[in-house]
Amino acid sequence: MKNISLHIDGKYVQTAKGNTVLAAARHNGIYIPTLCYHPRTRQAGKCRMCVVEVQGLPGLQVSCSIQAQDGMVVLANTEKIIETRKMIVELYLSNGKHNCISCEAAGACELQDAAYQLGIEKSGFPVLEKDIPPDFSSPMIIRDMNKCIQCYRCIVGCNNIVVNEVLDMGFRGSNMTVVCDTNKPMGRSSCVVCGECVQLCPTGALTEKKSVAKGRSWEINKIRTTCPYCGVGCQIHLHVKDNEIVRVSGVEDAEPNYGSLCIKGRFGYDFVHSPARLKTPLVRKNGRLEEVSWEEALDHTAKRLLDIKQEHGPDSIVGIGCARSTNESNYVMMKFMRAVIGTNNVDHCART
């Protein structure tokens, strides 16, 4: 794709033709704060945090929506722009309950980040605290609309990315809020608990139940790995504290999922720390399962398979592959059953 050139705050930058001014700035290390924009939800233009001045155009322009043009001259951090952003953040802080001390999103909140970058310690406007009871009805998600800034990211994610079409904006004026279906509690709505909305939320309005009080963002070590639940190969981050997984998120810029996960991939990590997990092989002796070495377990299994094959024939044996194994391991399983055992009785737990 053809590149174009422009100037942002006096810096000569290049970006792909068709990119927005915001994308051009971010690709070149120039900070422009946003609250409603997300790379996966695309243009939004609602929060007005990303406004810039463009030479030749009147007023302030929304950088997440305006296309970069060859030769364009952009100012992203003038005094006028900074004052505008401060006013916007102060308005957000004045509407709702944004208590960073007790919020689960502290340290990973984009509203908090914007306030920090702009040097805002408190709102200059009268604080109009909402008093909406948090919704705990979902088995995995807590909704606290007191902290919602109506950025629409959760709505776009639910409707356009995973296409579950559960969330939308309801009511009007000061009563406008994000609703599930026809304003049902999330746990009684058509929500499939994929957690897409939680990952996209820029504040603490949507949080995960299982990770509450498990660790602040700065205490967490993020480890990238592959989701073990099926063969798609979704890329995930394990959020680990004290050698314990406290939450899971999708890797935003990685194929094949680009941040999206199903309910199992996002919330089904408890098995890792289950005390019921087997740590050594077990062989039944005299009617009881006993721990043995891997050598004894493999020898015992090979002998039993050989005995069954000789007595009942190879088609009396069935091989079941596992979705948590690699493709290579499942291939070896299939090859073993067909070439060594001599049967085509091979299946897979994720086939259905």
Could you describe the 3D structure shown?
With 352 residues, the chain is of the alpha+beta class. The chain folds into four domains: 3-77, Ubiquitin-like (UB roll) (Roll), CATH 3.10.20.740; 103-109 and 121-213, 2-Layer Sandwich (Alpha-Beta Plaits); 215-277, Single Sheet (N-terminal domain of TfIIb); 282-348, no CATH class. Helix content is 24%, strand content 20%. The protein has eight helices and 16 strands. The strands form six sheets. Strands 2-1-5-3-4 form a five-stranded mixed sheet, sandwiched between helices. Strands 10-11-12 form a three-stranded antiparallel sheet. The longest helix has 19 residues, at 294-312. The protein is elongated and about 85 Å long. It starts with a strand and ends with a strand.
Radius of gyration: 27 Å
Order of helices and strands: EEHEEEHHEHEEHEEEEHEEHEHE
How many domains, in number, for the residues? 4
Q: Characterize the main sheet.
A: 5 strands, mixed
Counting DSSP E segments of at least 2 residues, the number of strands comes to 16
Strand order within the widest sheet?
2-1-5-3-4
What is the average per-residue confidence, as pLDDT, rounded to a whole number? 93
CATH architecture of the largest domain: 2-Layer Sandwich
Number of helices: 8
Do you know the CATH topology of the largest domain? Alpha-Beta Plaits
- pLDDT below 50 for ≥5 consecutive residues: which ranges? none
CATH class of the largest domain: Alpha Beta
Structural class: alpha+beta
